[in-house]
Amino acid sequence: MLKSRYREVCERLDWSVHEYEDGSVDLEKYSPAGEDFVFGASSENFIREVKKYAAYFDVDEHVELWVDSRGKNGVPGSIRELVEDAEAIDKMLQELADALAEVEDDDDA
Question: Would you say 26 and 39 are in contact if contact means Cβ atoms under 8 Å apart?
């Protein structure tokens, strides 16, 4: 089960937290362009996995996922907007990882 202070940090930063019986956790947040961005981690290694996901998030790779769908089904029509949105997602992830690292440091104190 996810520690309550980890959940509080996520929710303070507007991430929705979905926990499952198998110990997995999905974090969900809408990007500025409206993408329903979701990624997963385990409750057991939560902070480490969030930090790793944030560290390895690739803006270019994320844009490539959406470029063929430009202008369809709510996907922004311009590549510039896709890039700016992916950069915003990267910033959201870094902010989350940094905030969780602070809580982790408090645990170690």
Answer: yes
